[in-house]
Amino acid sequence: MKPVLWLACLGLIGTSSLSAQEPRLRSTLTEHIARVESVAFSPDGKTLASGNGDATIKLWDVTTGKNIATFKGHAREVCSVAFSPDGKTLASGSWDETVKLWNVSSGKNTATMKDPAIRFFSLVAFSPDGKTLASLSFDTIKLWEVATGKNIVTFKENYFEATSVVFSPDGRTLASANDDFTIKLRDVVTGKIAAAFHADCLVRCVAFSPDGKTLASSAFCGGMLTLWDVASGKDVTLNPDTIGGSCVAFSPDGKTLAYGRAQTVELWNVASRKRIAELKGGATCVAFSPDGKILASASGNAIDLRDVTPVTKAER
Fold it and tell me: Mind listing the pLDDT tens digit for each residue in 208-225?
């Protein structure tokens, strides 16, 4: 049986008192012919990259909503995309057991990393300095030197499947969500596990706050959206009574959290721990623009771009 890619959403709608302000739908991008698995904004916010089930990567002009480039080269679904901090390189991970680097301007595939430890899907994340790329595939995390495409470090754990990987903002820590119901924080230099946070079930996605002090996670059972204090490991569950959370993303200022589910996308005020908006149309992945004004969310083969400033400003 094909392993399950835990970036998919299944869920129900919760209820709460919400802001009267509603985000404006700027555009819906619909040129993909298969489900969109990942979205990422370029550092300047002008371009959105998306990876999907038709084995292609598309680049979109955020202002016009037009598809401006399509990268082809993967043999199977593209399940993860990430821009380098300088915006010149795009990394992609696929079910074809490879990680690829692309020149954003030319669309040329500049490197392909294939390794026996990369099995089925690969998730990718750049370090903050852009020199290192992390890839995650089941029980193996690999660090690659971006300049050469060489594997420089391999971390292997005693669990069958990890589901998310992300660098801390200072680049010193790598957080991974694992199928043993834990979130592990690993020192990038020594490779040692500095901390392990224990959840009640499988965690699907993790995201660091911009200051690195908080980690957000979404879990399979109960649809739990949880905030973790990185220093102490203490956690606060925001919505224990709903089902089916999948993806999470902090706004650039760290004040708002986007939470994707099967039928809705929720916005939460981090300080008050209140849900401030519920947007129709679920999401397999979410991402804020670098200025925090736009939220991209993908459901099926469509990507919605919304202006979220009416909601976020109203709550501050």
Answer: 999 999 999 987 665 588
